[in-house]
Amino acid sequence: MSQGVSAADAARLLLLPFTFLLSLLTSPARRLLLALLSLGPIPRHIAFIMDGNRRWATSQPIPLPVRAGHISGFSALKTVLEACLELRGLDTVTVYAFAIDNFKRSEEEVQALMGLAKRNLMELAGHGELLARHSVRLRIVGRRKLLPPDVRAAVERVEEVTRRNHRATLNVCIPYASRDEMAGAVRELVADTLSSKAEAEEADRGITCDALEARMMLAHSPPVDVLVRTSGVYRLSDFMLWQCAEHTHLHFTKRYWPLFGLRELVPIILDYQRAEFRRQLWEWAR
């Protein structure tokens, strides 16, 4: 790659074969397709493990900088989020943007990711942008104290700007780990129990799943109906372990996140609808 071509420009050039698919996301045909899908059961809450940005970048015929993969991953997020928000009945999207363990990566990559996170969050919440057009409230979920001060300030600004949006919620998990979330809920519940000075038996009765649920970082969101992981990895990687319950549909696709779009999302929604119709029929037959 020549020095005159930036990582962002190179990423956009390599995505040219997929521009036709992306253009459908703003066409009447795309809106009609999503409207037809909305006639059936629609998941209320869908979550994404956006995996494969780095591998997509380095697997190109001319390997790209890792930063190019993350830039393309953000474009995919906007595309997928736009489609999700046009599905009537879906009101919560949660994305795994940065794991606490990601701080173990190279200092250069972490700094680049933090810079991109700051820029991308501000862009999403900008006047006339995606969150404003769809009246989406953005919530940051995770140990925000671990974020650099400038990123933390940007997070607080974006949350304030979108606080009055009421159509849907976008949860951005950064920096996040499910075990950390559960440990924090346990600590808070124990502290609340001790401060109440209740008798031992009464205190024991107060330590319940519901009490823990109320103290989770994602307590404000409904249960997860569909969880999607891209890039061909078959594990949850410490993401929403508490929230994935009996009826959560898990989908693992080999597609790298920068290439994930409507073509991959529609079969996932159709699979959810088939399962829901089957479940409803079974309940009716009983």
TrEMBL record:
Classification via PROSITE patterns: UPP_SYNTHASE
**Out of the domains of life, which is the source?**
Eukaryota
Q: Does the keyword DNA repair apply?
A: no
Establish whether keyword Magnesium is in the entry.
yes
The processes (GO biological process) annotated in the record are: polyprenol biosynthetic process
Q: What is its EC number?
A: 2.5.1.-
A single GO molecular-function term is: ditrans,polycis-polyprenyl diphosphate synthase [(2E,6E)-farnesyl diphosphate specific] activity
Q: Which Pfam families match?
A: Prenyltransf
Keyword annotations of the record: Magnesium, Transferase
Q: Name one GO cellular component term.
A: lipid droplet
The UniProt entry's sequence similarity note says: Belongs to the UPP synthase family.
Q: What is this protein called?
A: Alkyl transferase
The organism encoding this protein is Tilletiopsis washingtonensis
